[in-house]
Design a protein that fits this description.
By secondary structure, the chain is an alpha+beta fold. About 55% of the residues lie in helices and about 20% in strands.
């Protein structure tokens, strides 16, 4: 009889441990699932904010490209127009440049961001070809550009290029 009580006690303890391990595993799986859902929600929110930011910048650049001062490339007026859009974007962009049909920089703000800005060709970048072919704005993948920092020293900067075509007067 004492043996049967011991066997019963051991069995109850064993069942309690199996139940505890099962519950622990279930809770752990639920926590991992919840954490994954939270991370997905955070990533989705950040992606939506990035998309909104890029659309906002693109919209302003389209407006800029339609201005007569930018279309005709009057250097002083073009820089003034670019400066207004740049300041309105409040630090969301590093620089804004006006290129000619060959990809050479005609105007850039702020000045000095691109080393030797005038005549430096951007025509080899994929976005330039894409804009030429489609006639529509283009947003690049993440690329690395060599740009001047606030101290004037050149540094490699992760960038996204947003290119906008020059629109005709009848558009």
């Amino acid at each position: 009889m004492i043996v049967s009580i011991w066997i019963t006690t051991v069995m109850v303890i064993f069942l309690i441990m199996v139940l505890a391990i099962t519950i622990h595993n279930k809770i752990e799986k639920d926590m991992i699932g919840q954490s994954g859902r939270q991370q997905t929600a955070i990533a989705q929110e950040k992606a939506e904010r990035m998309e909104e930011l890029l659309q906002n910048i693109e919209r302003r650049l389209v407006i800029l490209s339609k201005l007569p001062t930018v279309k005709k490339v009057r250097p002083d007026d073009t820089i003034k127009s670019i400066r207004v859009i740049f300041n309105d974007l409040e630090g969301k962009v590093k620089f804004i440049a006006r290129l000619d049909e060959k990809g050479n920089v005609l105007a850039v703000y702020p000045e000095g961001v691109i080393e030797g800005p005038f005549g430096r060709g951007f025509q080899y970048f994929r976005y330039f070809e894409e804009i030429e072919q489609t006639g529509k704005p283009y947003i690049s993948d993440l690329i690395v550009l060599e740009l001047a920092n606030k101290q004037g020293k050149m540094e490699m900067v992760k960038s996204i290029i947003i290119g906008v075509p020059k629109y005709n007067d009848d558009f």
